[in-house]
């Protein structure tokens, strides 16, 4: 690359890296179903029925980070009476899909799974309890 072009691009390099990461995430989101089918197929060919767990273990670090981020959010509200009661990683159970009005919906495709859970208790009647619940509902949508 021409040094003058590199000098012109240099101030924008951090933004280009961030944009590249976002593009990568969008591509992964769009191609996720096909990627999973290919990983399952390759795993099945290599190690039989246990190969279907390859996708699960590829997602394991993300599950850990996701659930620990929920636990951290609860810990941030510790001064207002929020307490962690249980953090569960890798308890796989089926979840009934729910609409915006919290009514259960039928799923036409694969059954969604819950891979982890953070349980907490909260103090009733405090304003921060309502603020935290509003934040939690906004994040779930």
Structure description:
This protein is an alpha+beta fold. It has one domain. It is built from four helices and two strands. The chain has a two-stranded antiparallel ribbon. The chain is flat, with a radius of gyration of 21 Å. It starts with a helix and ends with a helix. The mean pLDDT is 81.
Features of the shown structure:
141 residues; alpha+beta; 2 strands
Sum this structure up briefly.
This protein has 141 residues and is an alpha+beta fold. The protein has helices spanning 3-9, 13-47, 54-76, 127-140, and strands at residues 83-94, 113-121. Strands 1-2 form a two-stranded antiparallel ribbon.
Map the helices and strands.
Elements: H1 3-9, H2 13-47, H3 54-76, E1 83-94, E2 113-121, H4 127-140
Antiparallel strand pairs: 1-2
